[in-house]
């Protein structure tokens, strides 16, 4: 029975991940894109590449704890200095009365970074098994986290702006804390991991099942 | 070459034929739903946007984004000196992240789009196009102008009760720059660009 779907790999073609050109007659020796010269994707590299993504994800997860526990910035006000954490900032926004912004920051800086890592872990797990039932879910969620990725950087920018603006010596000064760097590491590592994950890993297993 | 209407899904590797006639702005992969085709505009139409983006880029850097006033003291920060101010306070890591995402990556992206248009205009290829084709998609993730703008809004609200904030002209230029880069990105048709560039490449 012929396969229901024809993929580029079955035909010996490869679409370049970088420039999008379709290359034909791709072999072990001819594995560079004819247009831009980038290395073309190969099925044999999937296992190795997946391990790289797992490693990046674990690194991101390791930074999640210092990001939440260490102060993201220290506000010095008339001699008093108050270190504040991520959750503390959200509570402050609620107290001030900016309910909308507080919710945005809570979701964007505490819940979403964690959810992104959990989802990427789930997608990686699905790509390693042959559970076809989860495939559509994984595809959809992967798109969500790829889109969301960069928006978590908003906290890093807020701290950077506040630290640069609020420099009034004795009266008021804001210094960034170690938590901000750890948080940036979480966001950047998750972004790099999501970028390195190739959605076709979710399909290749079943493409070569003969189903 | 494969036929022009045959596309390979960038996400699931499926080979499909585009529907005929092509309607609307996008075509999707029948298996995984990824975008396999986007309608673009002639590259001529991009030129005014690129020029606008360059003007706004300069305008967004030379003046302060906003001034902060507290008991008669004023501090101000421009887009280009933000990273420098952080580096002075020994926040090198933060300075690196901020400068890459708000200054260097957007500039690299704008330079890329500008340089890519040169071979189509001169009708012959110029050096570096291969390299740009290879890394152009990289800058898109790391140019975080829209995210930075949200950051400005949050920072302004946080400071609201503490000090007086006067938005500068550069802030509006920055908003315009963000919009024009997004427009260029949305209108740039990579598939057609590759085809037209290869034609120039073979001629020259």
Explain the overall architecture:
The complex is a heterodimer of chains A (211) and B (204). With 211 residues, chain A is mainly α. Chain A has 2 domains: 1-41, no CATH class; 44-207, Butyryl-CoA Dehydrogenase, subunit A, domain 3 (Up-down Bundle). Chain A has 8 helices and 5 strands, in the order αββαββααααβαα. Chain A has a 3-stranded antiparallel sheet. In chain A, a hairpin with a 2-residue loop joins β3 (73-77) and β4 (80-84). Chain B folds into 2 domains: 1-39, no CATH class; 40-203, Up-down Bundle (Butyryl-CoA Dehydrogenase, subunit A, domain 3). Chain B is 58% helix and 15% strand. Chain B is built from 7 helices and 7 strands; from the N terminus they run ββββαββααααβαα. In chain B, the strands form 3 sheets. In chain B, strands 6-5-7 form a 3-stranded antiparallel sheet. A two-stranded antiparallel ribbon of chain B has the order 1-2. A two-stranded antiparallel ribbon of chain B has the order 3-4. In chain B, α1 (47-62) runs antiparallel to α3 and α3 (92-122) packs across α4. Chain B is elongated.
CATH architectural designation of the largest domain in chain B: Up-down Bundle
Main sheet strand line-up of chain A: 4-3-5
CATH architecture of the largest domain in chain A: Up-down Bundle
Distance between the termini of chain B: 20 Å
Can you count the beta strands of chain A? 5
Q: Tell me about the largest β-sheet of chain B.
A: 3 strands, antiparallel
Spans where pLDDT lies below 50 across 5 or more residues of chain B: none
Largest sheet properties of chain A:
3 strands, antiparallel
Kindly provide the name of the CATH class of the largest domain in chain A. Answer: Mainly Alpha
Q: Globular, elongated, flat, extended or rod-shaped: what is the shape of chain B?
A: elongated
Rg of chain B (C-alpha, Å)? 21 Å
The arrangement of helices and strands of chain A along the chain is HEEHEEHHHHEHH
Strands side by side in the biggest sheet of chain B:
6-5-7
């Amino acid at each position: 029975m012929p396969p229901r779907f024809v993929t580029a790999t079955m035909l010996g073609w490869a679409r370049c991940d970088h420039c999008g050109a379709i290359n034909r007659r791709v072999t072990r020796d001819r594995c560079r894109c004819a247009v831009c010269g980038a290395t073309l994707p190969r099925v044999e590299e999937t296992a190795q590449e997946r391990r790289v993504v797992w490693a990046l994800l674990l690194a991101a997860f390791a930074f999640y704890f210092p990001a939440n526990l260490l102060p993201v910035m220290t506000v010095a006000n008339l001699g008093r200095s108050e270190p504040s954490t991520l959750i503390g900032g959200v509570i402050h926004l609620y107290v001030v009365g900016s309910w909308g912004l507080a919710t945005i920051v809570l979701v964007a800086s505490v819940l979403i970074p964690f959810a992104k890592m959990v989802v990427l872990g789930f997608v990686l797990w699905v790509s390693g098994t042959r559970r076809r039932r989860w495939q559509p879910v994984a595809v959809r969620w992967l798109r969500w986290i790829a889109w969301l990725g960069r928006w978590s950087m908003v906290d890093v920018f807020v701290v950077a702006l506040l630290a640069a603006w609020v420099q009034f010596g004795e009266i008021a000064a804001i210094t960034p804390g170690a938590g901000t760097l750890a948080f940036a590491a979480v966001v950047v590592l998750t972004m790099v991991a999501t970028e390195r994950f190739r959605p076709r890993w979710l399909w290749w297993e079943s493409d070569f099942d003969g189903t | 070459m494969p036929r022009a209407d045959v596309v390979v899904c960038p996400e699931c590797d499926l080979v499909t034929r585009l529907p005929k006639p092509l309607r609307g702005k996008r075509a999707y992969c029948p298996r995984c739903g990824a975008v396999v085709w986007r309608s673009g505009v002639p590259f001529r139409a991009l030129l005014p946007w690129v020029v606008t983006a360059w003007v706004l880029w300069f305008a967004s850097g030379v003046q302060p984004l906003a001034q902060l006033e507290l008991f008669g003291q004023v501090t101000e920060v421009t887009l280009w000196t933000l990273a420098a101010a952080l580096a002075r306070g020994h926040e090198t890591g933060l300075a690196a992240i901020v400068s890459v995402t708000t200054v260097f990556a957007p500039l690299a992206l704008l330079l890329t789009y500008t340089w890519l248009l040169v071979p189509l205009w001169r009708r012959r290829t110029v050096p570096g196009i291969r390299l740009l084709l290879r890394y152009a998609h990289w800058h898109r993730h790391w140019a975080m102008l829209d995210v930075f703008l949200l950051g400005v809004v949050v920072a302004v609200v946080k400071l609201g009760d503490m000090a007086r904030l006067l938005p500068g002209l550069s802030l509006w230029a920055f908003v315009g720059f963000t919009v024009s880069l997004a427009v260029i990105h949305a209108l740039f048709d990579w598939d057609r660009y590759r085809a037209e560039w290869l034609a120039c490449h073979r001629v020259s």
